[in-house]
UniProtKB/TrEMBL annotation:
Keyword set, alphabetical order: Cell inner membrane, Cell membrane, Membrane, Transmembrane, Transmembrane helix, Transport
Biological processes per GO annotation: amino acid transport
A GO CC term attached to the entry: ATP-binding cassette (ABC) transporter complex
Species of the source: Rubrimonas cliftonensis
Upper taxonomic lineage: Bacteria, Pseudomonadati, Pseudomonadota, Alphaproteobacteria, Rhodobacterales
Protein family per UniProt: Belongs to the binding-protein-dependent transport system permease family. HisMQ subfamily.
Listed name of the protein: Amino acid ABC transporter membrane protein 2, PAAT family
Length: 246
């Protein structure tokens, strides 16, 4: 690494272009660590809160509740049909235009960029997870429901012990994809002053008037985190979907 830094410095002094200077990346190492933490924090919380919202909505859709199903379907359509960036801008910039919002108890939260990102990411992820879980619930074998009824289980007990756990197992691959999509989608947080991975990359590029150092490092970090997610989901699949293997 020292040799690469020396070579980059020599090339810079000689006036020749240098593709990538690792010294610039290492000089901002604390910022990169903080950026990774912010990205992981936002992504994890959005997925967890989104799941909490999505599970009851998926159950309502699978049960085809007359009124609730229509409301949930409209919610899912809005948040799946519009870009995540638009949703973030509407929450971060749009809500501040209303006086009753600025005068409400929620204003200390809604004026903070981090909380606006978390709200936007949670609502968006909840819409996608709702459809993922609904599909997994609908795909439940008829024999499972009949077995629960034969054992005298109430609908709530059957859902808690058999139907929902089975649906979660079947939804693992799709939930893994949603985790990757949310991880990548969280990069737009840098557009509202959040110093996540991409935000630090843009900071490095602007501070040192370079291009590749910030963007390539950010891309490498996102790829490393994606690999960890894929690896973790694969291990969960091997454990909980073992009965589906040949």
């Amino acid at each position: 690494m020292e040799a690469m830094c020396a070579a980059a410095a020599a090339a810079s002094e000689a006036g020749s272009p240098w593709f990538f200077n690792p010294c610039l990346v290492l000089s901002e190492a604390p910022r990169w660590v903080e950026g990774v933490w912010i990205t992981l924090h936002l992504t994890a919380l959005a997925l967890v809160f989104g799941f909490v919202l999505a599970l009851p909505m998926a159950c309502a859709r699978a049960a085809r509740a007359p009124v609730v199903d229509t409301l949930v379907r409209g919610y899912v359509y809005v948040f799946r049909g519009s870009p995540l960036l638009v949703q973030l801008f509407l929450i971060y910039y749009g809500l501040a235009q209303f006086g009753f919002v600025r005068d409400s108890l929620l204003w200390p939260v809604l004026r903070d960029a981090w909380w606006c990102c978390l709200i936007a990411f949670t609502l968006n992820s909840a819409a996608y997870q709702t459809e993922i879980l609904r599909g997994a619930l609908v795909a439940t074998a008829k024999g499972d429901r009949e077995a629960c009824a034969a054992l005298g289980m109430s609908p709530w007990l059957a859902a808690r012990r058999v139907l929902i756990p089975g649906a979660l197992r079947r939804a693992l691959p799709q939930l893994g994809n949603e985790t990757v999509f949310m991880l990548h989608g969280s990069a737009i947080a840098s557009l509202v002053t959040i110093q996540d991975i991409l935000g630090v990359g843009r900071l490095v590029n602007g501070r040192y008037y370079v291009v590749y150092e910030g963007l390539l490092t950010a891309a490498a970090l996102y790829m490393a985190l994606t690999w960890l997610v894929v690896w973790g989901v694969a291990r969960l699949e091997r454990r909980y979907l073992r009965h589906l293997a040949r």
